[in-house]
Amino acid sequence: MAASIAASSFFPGSPAPAPAAPKNGLGERPESLDVRGVAAKPGASSNAVRAGKTRAHAAVPKVNGGGKSAVADGEHETVPSSVPKTFYNQLPDWSMLLAAITTIFLAAEKQWTMLDWKPRRPDMLTDTFGFGRIIHDGLMFRQNFSIRSYEIGADRTASIETLMNHLQETALNHVKTAGLLGDGFGSTPEMSKRNLFWVVSQMQAIVELYPCWGDTVEVDTWVSANGKNGMRRDWHIRDSITGHTILKATSKWVMMNKLTRKLARIPDEVRTEIEPYFFERSAIVDEDNRKLPKLPDGQSTSAAKYVRTGLTPRWADLDINQHVNNVKYIAWILESAPISILEIHELASIVLDYKRECGRDSVLQSHTSVHTDCNSESGETTLHCEHVLSLESGPTMVKARTMWRPKRTKAQETVVPSSF
């Protein structure tokens, strides 16, 4: 179609009908015709072609021995040609080249249209591709995430594991965007030289609401000092459209040697690398510093009301440092939570205290104790659970406390946009 339009600009109007082909003395048609309907022989010279054209206009034998000639200058009668009248065989030979040029032009125009793509939705104007960017004079990192269909649970909202994965992703991208990513999982160049990497020791998260499929969340993260040999990282997740707070979280990190698997002090060279990025601000003002539970010795299995045993890490649960990703611990902790809680309650907050790293050959068990609380102000019955994740051989891996509230309906979600 594009080639037809382009050709019509060079050849306006319909092509003239081809003159009739003369018969030879035996009344037979010539073996071949050129594009003008003139008799031609294969390999004939230009003189032969001109001679054929002359014969086409000459008188021919009369029909039934008299009357007018059967063909007079090719105007009174048209004899069907043995060559079908198609578009291309009625154009000069260079029409194929014209069609090729038109095709190339249309392909180039399509590519240019793709390069000239502009977002059509207001929420796509900022951080369109989710790469993230440095803000607040280089002290904070911000990245947007769209909630995918495979990140939501049975209640059609994002799971706590999804939100925690967003925290981890922004932390690593912050280090990468700042130019501090060495040969390791969040390690700086000086840390990589000394076989050091970060491990989380404590974490607390408060969830205000859970986003739904298709929502876009905006995650801010920053770091600060935590004592002499630790680092603190905070996060603030908002709805990118309304600005409502979704989650606030804080964490404490220490260094571990990759070869000895023991904790290590922060070298001065590493401190020099990270100190310019410290931002003294807390996402959670009132932190939960209450002592976390522990199972009594000798009766660890019977002390918890709900127990799930035989938990083992998969190969996909290991990270680049060859131990289980910290988000996986949360999934294991909730494995022993009773289904009656999960069906009508949602997780409001979680506090985690990591004690040991988990390798690929570990076999764990999850313990949960449930306690009922009554909030006199709202009249809602809330729950808090105490969790212990341990090796089946006895040592504790993680201790945790979770708070649960009744699931909210859309009418109950009356949150106020937060300012930062």
Supply the key terms.
alpha+beta, disordered C terminus, disordered N terminus, 9 helices, 420 residues, two-stranded antiparallel sheet
Biggest sheet features: 12 strands, antiparallel
Structural class: alpha+beta
Task: Note the beta-strand portion.
Answer: 25-35%
Q: What ranges have pLDDT less than 50 throughout 5 or more consecutive residues?
A: 1-46, 48-79, 116-126, 296-303, 411-420
Average pLDDT taken over every residue: 76
Return Rg in Å: 40 Å
E-strand count: 14
Helix content: 10-25%
What would you call the shape? globular
What is the terminal-to-terminal distance?
58 Å
- Element string (H = helix, E = strand): HEEHHEEHHEEEEEHHEHHEEEE
Tally of helical runs: 9
Structure description:
By secondary structure, the protein is an alpha+beta fold. Mean pLDDT is 76; it is low at 1-46, 48-79, 116-126, 296-303 and 411-420. Strand 8 (245-257) and strand 9 form a beta hairpin. It contains nine helices and 14 strands. Strands 3, 4, 5, 6, 7, 8, 9, 10, 11, 12, 13 and 14 form a twelve-stranded antiparallel beta sheet that branches. It has a two-stranded antiparallel ribbon with strand order 1-2. The two termini are 58 Å apart. The chain has helices spanning 2-10, 46-56, 95-115, 160-177, 189-193, 268-274, 300-303, 326-335, 339-344; strands spanning 32-33, 39-40, 133-135, 140-146, 196-207, 216-225, 231-239, 245-257, 263-264, 306-311, 345-354, 364-374, 381-391, 396-406.
What's this, in brief?
The chain is α+β, with helices and mostly antiparallel strands and 420 residues long. It is built from nine helices and 14 strands.
